Amino acid sequence: MAMASTLHSDRQPDKLRSLGIVALNGMFDEMDAVGVMRQAVAEILPGDVAIVSSFGADSVVLLHIAAQVDPSLPIYFLETGKHFPETLAYVEQLKKQLGLINVTAIHPAPHDLARFDPDGDLWETDPDSCCHIRKTEPLEPITEQFGGWVTGRKRFQTKERGVLPHFELTSDDRIKINPLAYFNDADVAAYKAEHDLPEHPLYSHGYKSIGCAPCTSVVAEGEDPRAGRWRGLNKKECGIHYDFSGAIASPMNAADKYSLFKDGTFVADPFRVWDETMVAGEARYAHVPLPVFLENREAFLANPHPLGLLVSPGDRVEDAEADLGRFVSIAIKFPAFTDGRGYSTARLLTERYQYANELRAVGDILQDQIPLMRRCGINAFVITHKPTREALIENRLPEVNIFYQPVGTSEVPVGTRPYLRRAS
Ligand code: SF4
């Protein structure tokens, strides 16, 4: 993978701050797209700028500008696994024709696909989660490597972008560069014609904005080009942090975005809270309350999609013993700090029933509880309490080494002499 020559920690936020993003836009507002790109790449953040490109219908203009300024500029292509074959061919065509020598495809994590989208049809029912797994998550470690990102966003595309400047400073001192901010449809067409740039192979077939195949459709004459993206859904962008034209929206720490803490970090959570509109035979990625599962057991067992189980205080998890392996996640509800019933449920699941998938704690969870929960086999936590989130990020949780109710065979109850315990 291509690496930026400068890591984020070595960057020059002070320079950016002192220069001021307003001044930057004032200085380069009149500059053409090639000039803006050249300033960013050569002067403002040399060696610390990259592009994410969808290699869609409009991508060729930005890529051509990049090739003029620096053909070795790192360009990342999100290979979601859902692209049209024509798009994959177009990537190769543009690499060759424009002389781009630093294009890297980034892929979704296989374990995320296996866990959250085993059938490859998540886009159908939950496109936001699909975009998270296939775009946002793979992109995140890449964005952290660079201080500047070139986007293909344009003012005319949406009303939210109506005031898009050439340069934007993000909250973590990264800079987004929008060389095409002032381009309109006619400008794009004129640029393509002037430089004799190849169209995406599907453009002439009515695809005016092209992303993943399942979420892209032909648009009618006169229709908004983006009407063909996620048609029928109230969705216009690929997610909070990545948009359809390859723009990095607003970089944030994972800990700021997500509530699920798992494997030592905050991660995207594909699961939703069960609601009454969900149907037993069709639901997916929801924690089904235990009583609802028991009432509709046959339908849930026939449901082929990933599901979780929600166990609340008073629920008898024993009643679902035979079906526990059906759930990829079990959520145990801890409604209050003083309610310890969830610990017993967790131990029952892990020790007696050998449940080995995700076991998560939900509810009012504070940092002192987490070491105790971990002892009981809980391996994921939905955390909203701010100090607890900070403690997790900084890895400062209290240690537990006195046990009144030991777990497993290695913990010795307080006041017990080990040799006596062994003897007993
Ligand atoms: S655009 Fe569609 S197929 Fe592609 S990642 Fe998003 S939801 Fe999935």
UniProtKB/TrEMBL annotation:
Please list the residues that make up the active site.
238 (nucleophile)
Q: Which cofactor does it need?
A: [4Fe-4S] cluster
Swiss-Prot/TrEMBL keywords:
Cytoplasm, Iron, Iron-sulfur, Metal-binding, Oxidoreductase
- The source's superkingdom equals Bacteria
Select a single GO molecular function from the record's annotations and give it: phosphoadenylyl-sulfate reductase (thioredoxin) activity
Q: What is its EC number?
A: 1.8.4.10
Q: What does this protein do?
A: Catalyzes the formation of sulfite from adenosine 5'-phosphosulfate (APS) using thioredoxin as an electron donor.
State the name under which the record lists this protein: Adenosine 5'-phosphosulfate reductase
User: To which species is this protein native?
Assistant: Devosia rhodophyticola
Q: Which gene encodes it?
A: cysH
